[in-house]
Amino acid sequence: MLLVAHLAFVGWLTLRPLDVAWVTAANLQPFAGIKADLALGPGQAVRRIGEALALLAPLGVLLPMAGGRLHASTLGSFLRTVAAGAMLSLGIELLQTAVPGQVVDIDSLMLNTLGVAVVHLAVVPAARARIRRMKGVPKRAPLPRDEVPQGSTPTIPRVGIAP
Questions:
Q1: Contact (Cβ atoms closer than 8 angstroms) between residue 107 and residue 52
Q2: Contacts 24+ apart (CB under 8 A), 38-44
Q3: Reported pTM
Q4: How many Å apart are CA 139 and CA 61, to the nearest integer?
């Protein structure tokens, strides 16, 4: 439910038409927008870069929560979450091409994805470990007592092809 609410808010915020007198050109050169933000001064730069980092950052926690797995690979979970965040950001940027007053910016795509990655790394592994400890769930589920490991799978010897 939180994931849907956050995505609805992001969609409303980024895809609504804006009434502006003029629109800047699309930024397709990496780091050009960040350099321009830094040129505005430290306060303005922190605000603009922080907004781009924070826009999709909650997805770093909400996407793994939607899966609900306590025993997920840390690297696999990170890669899935960051890839999903990047694809959502890319989708938003592509949809903005049709919205009056909105401008495509490659830097916002990079910063949105970085925000998802940072929040995921900061929260999810520690939260999963804490939940496992609270529930008393072992790292790996033991084999049931009636199932005994049988050893390696038998292999069939290769037979050469006759001439």
A1: yes
A2: none
A3: 0.78
A4: 21
Give the Cα separation of 124 and 133 in Å (integer).
Answer: 14
Residue 143 backbone dihedrals phi, psi, to 5 degrees: -70, 145
Count CA atoms closer than 13 A to 41's CA, side-chain side: 2
Q: How far is CA 37 from the centre of its chain?
A: 24
State the chain's mean pLDDT as an integer. 88
pLDDT in tens, 99-133: 988 889 999 999 999 999 999 999 999 999 898 88
Domain ranges of the chain: 26-135
Q: What type of residue sits at position 20?
A: V
CB atoms closer than 10 angstroms to residue 125: 15
CA distance 155 to 113: 46
Long-range contacts of 26-31 (CB under 8 A, 24+ apart): 26/97, 26/103, 26/104, 26/105, 27/103, 27/104, 27/105, 27/106, 27/107, 28/104, 28/106, 29/106, 30/106, 30/107, 30/110, 31/107
